[in-house]
Model the fold of this input.
Amino acid sequence: MENLLKSILNTHSLSFQELTMPANVDISKVGKKEGLEIWRIKKFKLEPVAKEEYGEFYTGDAYICLNTKSTSEWNVHFWLGEDATTDEMGTAAIKTVEMDQALAGLPVQYREIQCHESSLFLSYFPDGIRYLSGGYDSGYHHVEDMLKDWKPRLFHCKGKRNVRCAQVECKDKSLNLGDVFILDLGRELYVWMPPESGRLERIKGMACAKNIALVERHGQAQVHILDSDWDQDETFWSHFGGKSAAKKIARARNDDEDYWKRTSEQVTLYKVSDASGSMKATKVAQGEVKQSELDTKDAFILDAVNGGIFVWVGKGCNIDERSNAFLWGENYLKQKKLPKWTQVTSVLEGVEPSSFTQWFGDWEEGKKKKSFEPRLFQVSDNSGKLVVEEIANFNQESLDGDDVMILDALNSIYVWVGAGANPKEKEGAQNTAKKYLQQGALPRHKNTTIETIYQGKETPTFKKFFRSWDDKLFQSDDRSVESMRKLLFNR
Done:
């Protein structure tokens, strides 16, 4: 680990004494119980985050999140806010390595960048995540102190499935008619649901506001829902220049990122070496990659194009090589001039997640070929470009009647069409699936099939991809906005 320390010190302007200060958390005791644990980086140490603050991330801070699935299976995520200092980033990296070592090198490690988090990370927070400006130390954390001299805050809730509520400027120009916003006045919260906002966005926005009022404010805040009266509430509009401002609000902006950013490229496997003092990536295979091309004595980078970057470390590598995984990943991003937020995942030989093994058509565990784990996506092709949002840890309730969904079972693609999906998406469902198939890079059978499934007419084959199935689920209105409103607020 000495080489990693030197690299972190040089890269992030840290002193050796600062980085090696005794931790205020005994890392050897973490990961013993199933569930999620979160720490923020504070003065080069780990500070536990209170359970009621899970899902809140300050843009000026760095965090480490450990999800323990069992006593031998962990995922470690280090999250970096867009305004985090280089010192905090460096400390997060080194503490992640320390945690990895305490858990025998078995965790899969993920680097998470604000606004570009993995679907797995977002799945830990069913009510979505919220970005708060500044750093934790800049805020008040006792309710009475917090509410004293309160300044209005506006949050933009973005995303149908994986909701991110980001603090934006509290001005009318921040609003648009297609998204849900939360106006936070301290003791009063307004959930603004304009006419073009979708059902799921509305439900997620209400759930987020309820969580703020109940948990963060300890029940000392009231939530107001503005839907049919979105342009009439005087208190809400008084913070945006009066009700006349409602007439000037822009329509929805389609600024979602195109999921297929590098469609012309192929999956590529590189062998990593830093014997010369700088990282060198030597191409091993491209297009079709095989498990046999990985060597237990070496480290490799798998560039899975839109699937992210994986750094695979063989069991024969020493601790320094294991520790250097994320540095190699970041150096690779720089060499290839890829966006800094590109997902980087570190995996150890023998505990590879399916998100890694799926790129190898011949992957076997022992003498048994590893089965493909199906993946579920919400898709939209309204704007002429395919926008894809993955839903991790999905179940039947992840299927939403307002959407067209794709269930990817590798050699079978199922297009699930919700009863409430808009006519354009219904009509183009097959073409959307073909586009998804053509632009993906997974190794598939050349005769991969596409089957359209309509809500309420699911086949037994389709149902088996879900942990459980209830035919009555889609027959009730329990998931309507009004039903959820009554459930959340009893009104």
About this structure: The chain has a mean pLDDT of 84. The CA atoms of residues 52 and 216 lie 7 Å apart. The chain has 14 helices and 24 strands. The domain at 140-248 is CATH 3.40.20.10 (Severin).
